[in-house]
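Data card: per-record layout.
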Amino acid sequence: MGSKNKLKRFRENESFSNVIQPSRETVTNNQFEYKGKWSELYFKNNNPIVLELGCGKGEYSVGMARKFPEKNFIGIDIKGARFWRGAKTALEENLENVCFLRTQIELIEDLFEANEVDEIWITFPDPQIKYKRTKHRLTNKIFLDRYRNILKPGGLVHLKTDSEFMHGYTLGLLHGLEEEVLYANHDVYKNHGSPEEVTTIQTFYEKQYLEEGKPITYIKFKLR
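The structure for this 224-residue chain is written out next.
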């Protein structure tokens, strides 16, 4: 994407009512207005809140918002030029149960209060295979503890990925920590029984992976 195009998208994001872009300083100084008040201030209802971490172009957040009007969705990514597409689509379709938050995922505990989130989706994250990148892996123990701190008791986490490494690493870690794995599938399009939202909503990159014949994996789990 050219820098002109990026700048245009950044400007448009600033005018979108469904895009929230707090400064890092605001978030880390505990001045983020929506923390603990997403239902009250933003969505203005008490419906369950579902996060998509690393939402990319926002296709999953928008797809789920269409499918589940009784839930509220927040797509989170640091790359605003990417989720511009999802935000624009949501506005065009008058989807009031989805918004986009431009921020770093490691700040998640400064953005949501304890017991504020019902579900978390992690869709096609970078597996961060190199050892020195392990700290950035979105299902490492540090990140799992962050999710635990904002999820309601019994809250769900979903991991959908094309990386067999990420699938195996996460499954091994969950078993080692004695967390509750509710469902695991290493090829959701070949093996039947996956939840409908796993196979009926596809991201831009997922379609590419499927064309390349890559299996798509999925894990659903709870954190104690």
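Known properties of this structure: The beta strands are 19-20, 49-53, 72-77, 98-102, 117-123, 151-161, 180-185, 217-222. The CA atoms of residues 125 and 157 lie 14 Å apart.

See the next section for split statistics.
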